[in-house]
Amino acid sequence: AGFALAALEVVQILDSTNSELMRRIQQGTPPQSGHVLVAEMQQAGRGRRGRQWQSPFGANLYYSYYWRLDDGMQAAMGVSIAVGLAVYDALKQLYGLQVQLKWPNDIYLNGRKLAGILVELDGLVEGPCHLVIGIGLNVAMPEPSALQIDQPWCDLQGAVGKVDKNQLVAVLSGCLSERLAQYRQSGLTQMSAQWNRLNAFAGTLVTLSTGQRSWSGSCEGIDNQGALLLRQDGEVKAFYGGELSLRAT
Ligand code: ATP
């Protein structure tokens, strides 16, 4: 029970597909809900906290999806969880691939980063909220750019062979629309259990840090709000918020 895509827009070069949609929102001219913007390369691809997303020209996917949520920012909290599941769905459906998810927003294959998700918001705590859902997915990473990535990574072509990018965009957009519709309807009530089965760090010792502070514990998955659950000394604590970074201990 998804909703149809409003439009698919393909551009050759942008600073970042997320930045472009955020600008349109800030200028008071957001697209329609379900609008997809894809670029062939990004000159300033972004991760969280000002980190770079390597975005060379070629076959990789640099994708943003605009979604308007009328229930305000509070309701937007768990969106990256739903988006991670949508990426999982698409790769399962197309290639039978079984990826793992890392809280709050990364996609891994055999311990290597395949894709990143960057959800950005513009809105008020109450009232309508504009969401820009960015997905950077490595399809075929050119060698020189690969050298710039400072953690284990992989690409789709290396895992499944030749990829039809048009088909990938179409199926991903369908899966995303479905997961967002499910999210709007029932939040993470069903999705959190599903996500927990795909948790790359399930039951392992992890450290969560903000830069200033850090917490270690056994990773128990997420709750229905999308908060990360860490078990420390027999007690389970929930951690919210986008600025936290998770590492294996
Ligand atoms: P973490 O820091 O734990 O990876 P994060 O969600 O904070 O998670 P992001 O901000 O999503 O990370 O992504 C930025 C990081 O991802 C970069 O610092 C780099 O290590 C890595 N990276 C950058 N470009 C790519 C790419 N094309 N493919 C895989 N990894 C990349």
From TrEMBL:
* EC numbers, comma separated: 6.3.4.15
Q: Which UniProt keywords apply?
A: ATP-binding, Biotin, DNA-binding, Ligase, Nucleotide-binding, Repressor, Transcription, Transcription regulation
Coiled coil segments of this chain: none
UniProt catalytic activity: biotin + L-lysyl-[protein] + ATP = N(6)-biotinyl-L-lysyl-[protein] + AMP + diphosphate + H(+)
For molecular function, the Gene Ontology terms on record are:
biotin--[biotin carboxyl-carrier protein] ligase activity
Where does the chain bind biotin? S16, T17, N18, Q42, R46, G47, R48, K113
Protein family membership? Belongs to the biotin--protein ligase family.
Q: What is this protein called?
A: Bifunctional ligase/repressor BirA
Q: What is the lineage of its organism?
A: Bacteria, Pseudomonadati, Pseudomonadota, Gammaproteobacteria, Alteromonadales
Query: What would be the name of the gene that encodes this protein?
Result: birA
Coverage of the whole protein, first to last residue?
Answer: 82 to 330 of 334
